[in-house]
Each structure stands twice: as C-alpha cells, then as structure tokens.
C-alpha cells in the first residue's frame, strides 16, 4: 500500500498537539470512552513525563501524525494508530522497532474491550499472561507478553 509515504521519526514537541489529538481520538474510538485528562495535561504527560521512561516515536504521512509508540527495553507503554491508517503496517513497524530494542521480552497492556488491538498483538507473537483493571478508565485490561525466540 502507500507505506512508502509513512515516515517514523523520534517524537519532538513541535508535534505535541497533533500527537495528543490523534492519541485521544484513537483511544476513544477503541474503548468508546472520552479521555479523562485535559488536553493540556495530556500534552504535559507526553512532553515531560513519558520521555523519562520511554523512547517515543511518531508516524507521519504527508507531515501529519498518524501514529505513536512509547516503549523501553521491557515494555510498550503506548501504541496508537489513527483509525484511518490502521491496517497499513504502521503498528507492525512500530512493534518491530520496540522488539529490536528490547531485552528480548516485552509486556504491554490493552483494554479487554479493544478487540482489534488484542487480535493485532496476538498476530504479532504476544501472549496473554494476566488480566486486571488497575487503570484510570476502570476498564478490564489484559497483560500481554512477547519473548524473542
């Protein structure tokens, strides 16, 4: 498909508003719930808190943010793709980058209600290792794990 137009770059704050808007839209689409935090708090989290724990990358198509991932050597903290750009290999490319940088094992959480994400992670070698609902949304979630072969 038009994957050649998709650039993955390290996140920089000039993309903060676009990234947060895409993130919030994608998340509410996936779980049917509006974001609990204000837009400003979300930008602060993206610019000031998340970078302390994670490497953040964004996907751009024609200069527009269409996806983001935040990860470190043991965990994928955030992974969102705009609904109009899902199924184009962007999420797979993000996961491959995280897997390459990992210690050989990655964990991540997704909401139980997000069946698309669950299928996506299972298709890419992640297995369910736990369930719970310790999250701000108070929704049941699933803990997935991937291990290098």
Automatic annotation (TrEMBL):
InterPro entries: Acyl_CoA_acyltransferase (IPR016181), GNAT_dom (IPR000182), MshD_Acetyltransferase (IPR050276). Transmembrane segments: none annotated. Keywords: Acyltransferase, Transferase. It comes from the Bacteria. Residues 6-149 form the N-acetyltransferase domain. Its EC number is 2.3.1.-. This is GNAT family N-acetyltransferase. It comes from Rossellomorea oryzaecorticis.
